[in-house]
Structure formats: structure tokens, C-alpha cells
Design goal:
The structure is a single chain. It is built from eleven helices and ten strands. By secondary structure, it is an alpha/beta fold. The protein folds into two domains: about 200 residues, 2-enoyl-CoA Hydratase, Chain A, domain 1 (Alpha-Beta Complex); about 45 residues, Lyase 2-enoyl-coa Hydratase, Chain  A, domain 2. Helix 3 packs parallel to helix 4, helix 5 packs across helix 6 and helix 9 runs antiparallel to helix 10. The radius of gyration is 19 Å and the shape is globular. The model has no long low-confidence stretch (mean pLDDT about 95).
Amino acid sequence: MNINRTWNTLKVEKNGDFLVLSINRPTKLNALNVEVLSELKELLAEIKKDEAFTVKGMIFTGEGEKAFIAGADISEMSDMNPSDAYTFGQLGQQVTLMMEGLQIPVIACVNGFALGGGCEMALSCDFIYATSNAVFGQPEVKLGLIPGFGGTQRLAKVVGRPMAKEIIYTGRNVTLEEAKALRLVQRSFATKEEMLTEAFNTLKGITKNSPFAVSIAKKVINDGVDLTINEGLQLEKRQFSAIFSSEDMREGTQAFVEKRAPNFKGK
């Protein structure tokens, strides 16, 4: 896995078993442009190759104190024609699908603005931690636009269609307290430092479990979102059965019987 190259718009740090991925454009409030999205796509493709679970989890955040990601780069978008916009939207959607599809747990750590594309990027992670100054929203209609990186779809799945419509139609900001009430945010913290520390603690807790089982649980949850309950149960049953052929299942159950800590291999 080649993640150690020089990135123009990203900051990538390995911390033990985990990666910390930061959008590194603080003077632009970490706004997403073609270069940022292209580098994200390249990095996520490298992480996806990591079948040995040498990286066991990732924190996704933004550099600086003002913004996670304040949105897409409007100065770049203002000159786009419909064909350019289609390509730009496709790139953004590819990145969110790749983020969502990683087999490892990914925590979005949001401080400051998570607007437009920033909210969409956070929604593509497994869950969201946020600081007291976090602000969410999909304000695209204020610019004569609509969300283009999955906001119309993922936000509705998280907060429900009527609330997603109200947020998107008005383009209003969503405070931390409302985001928690809507279950958009799972946990909140006074400072970015506290948030990152607790995110690491959460990942450490997750990695005590079978990384293979966590990856399968993630896939079943994600794939089951648009299924009926009966279809989802069939999917769960197939994966529950298949996991009995894994080394981690044998190790985990044997360790329980022998009253010892398991030594999971991720396969």
C-alpha cells in the first residue's frame, strides 16, 4: 500500500494501526476541488488494496480549527459547463462510494463547517464525531445548485426524507445540538483534541474484535439499507453462514471456550 507519497492537498499520517486523513487546505476552509477529489480517489484506492488489515481504521478530518470541509470550491465550479459539472459530480460520488466501501471503520471528526460537499463527505463515513463549533448543512440551493456528491440520498437515509427536504430546500445551517438530535452526529466534544483522542479510543476498542467480522458487518449494513426487511434478513443469513468458514471465527470461538484473548488475523 503506497500512501507515503507527497500529497498536495492531503495530510496522511500513520498512527499505530490507524490512519489520520486530513484535507489540507485550511486557507480555503478545506474546500473540495478537482485536485482534492482526485487525490482522495487515489489514496482510497491504495487503502482498498490493504487486504491484510495493516491499517485497521481511519479518522477523516480537516486541517485547522475553522472547517472540516466548508464545501466544494465555488470559484472552480463557477466556470463549469454541464459536461464539466457531470464529470465533477461523478468524481465526488466516486470518492464518497469508495469511502463508504472501505472494509475498515472510518470515523469523520468534524470541527467547524461541514457544509455542502463537506457534509456529504462526512455522511460517507461510518459515523460522525463533532466538536461544539461544528455546523452542518446542504446550502447548494442558495447558489442555484443541488447537492451533487450524494447529499440528496444519504442525508435522507439518515434523518428521513421530510427532514432532508427541509434542510436542503432551505439551505439552512444545522447546529451540533440539532445534528445530535437527528442522529447525524453520534458523539460531541468540547475541543478537536478531545474528539481525536476519543476517536482513537473508539478505533482501539473496535480493533480488539475480528477485523474480518467488522468488515462483513459493515458490508451487510450498507448493502441492506435499500432492501426490504425480508431481503435484508436473507443477506444477513448468507453472510452469517459464510463467516463460519473464516479463521477469525474459529479463533474467536475457540478463545472463548479456552477463556483466553483471541488472536485475530483478519481472515
